[in-house]
Amino acid sequence: MELERFPIMDTAIHNVSVAETLDIVDGFVADGSPRVIVTANVDHLMLLRKDAAFREAYRRADLVTCDSVPVKWALAFLGTPVKERVAGADLFGALAERAATTGYRCFYLGAAPGVAEKAAGVLTERYPGLNVVGTYSPRVMPWKELADDEETLRRIREAKPDVLFVAFGAPKQELWLDAVRDRLGVPAAIGVGAAFDFAAGTVKRAPRWMQRAGLEWFFRLSQEPRRLWRRYLFVDSRFVSYVLREKFRGRKAAAPPKAD
């Protein structure tokens, strides 16, 4: 099935809801070919402007969802509103619930030591039947080095997951997934950023009202100002100017990701 895609800046985003994304993952698992899902937020779109390897990883991704409310607003402003925000953190929980009923084998990779294991414990208690076949936090290293780290690759291959969740942060998780997808052969692999920390309770997520209001970035900034101030206040703040330019100077052709 050809999925509708909407161009924005240096990529294109699939017009899908959370429910449709879950069905697409079902199709990926049934097919068995290695697929990668990425979730586009403002930070990703800004990184795409200056990182050619990241743009290529996005181009090769099999599904690109709208991860943030500001991106959803921007697409509506550009005349191509998406059905729903499909954030990586929300998809992580929704797929855990789906996996508990389908029997999908899940693997949690990344975050600080112990966080993925704790997240697995929380979610298996919340969703009886969830089968987490492995968790692993490799030592911190550049993505290219990690792509050749046999210990990490071996653990995943031996576990044979249907769905692989990767929490390295962007753009590392997307670049790594693009580099190793064929060597792992996982039917559905997705970068989920801070989702393990949210599930484990090691990082607090913004209240629902702030998420709906597009203020999740402000909540995260207030929690980690030293780490995030430059990203949100100096880099991502330019997002509005790029969207305005796209609106009033004509939308350039994006290098769209693959459709299923």
Care to describe what's here?
There is one protein chain. With 260 residues, this protein is α/β, with parallel strands linked by helices. It has one domain (9-192, 204-248). It has helices spanning 18-31, 42-48, 52-60, 69-77, 88-102, 115-126, 143-147, 150-159, 172-184, 195-200, 208-212, 216-223, 225-235, 239-248; strands spanning 5-8, 11-14, 36-40, 63-66, 105-110, 131-136, 163-167, 188-191. A hairpin with a 2-residue loop joins strand 1 (5-8) and strand 2. It is globular. The relative contact order is 0.19.
Which overall shape is indicated by the principal axes computed on the Cα atoms? globular
* SSE topology string: EEHEHHEHHEHEHHEHEHHHHH
**What is the β-strand count?**
8
What proportion strand?
A: 5-15%
How would a textbook summarize the main sheet? Answer: 6 strands, parallel
Quickly count the helices.
Answer: 14
Ranges with pLDDT <50 over ≥5 residues?
Answer: 252-257
| Share in helix | 40-55%
Instruction: State the distance separating the first and last CA atoms.
Output: 6 Å
- Mean pLDDT score, rounded? 91
- Walk across the major sheet and give the strand order: 4-3-8-7-5-6
Number of discrete domains: 1
Radius of gyration over alpha carbons?
A: 17 Å
Class from helix and strand fractions = alpha/beta
Which descriptors apply to this entry?
260 residues, alpha/beta, six-stranded parallel sheet, two-stranded antiparallel ribbon
Q: Topology of this protein?
A:
Layout: E1 5-8, E2 11-14, H1 18-31, E3 36-40, H2 42-48, H3 52-60, E4 63-66, H4 69-77, H5 88-102, E5 105-110, H6 115-126, E6 131-136, H7 143-147, H8 150-159, E7 163-167, H9 172-184, E8 188-191, H10 195-200, H11 208-212, H12 216-223, H13 225-235, H14 239-248
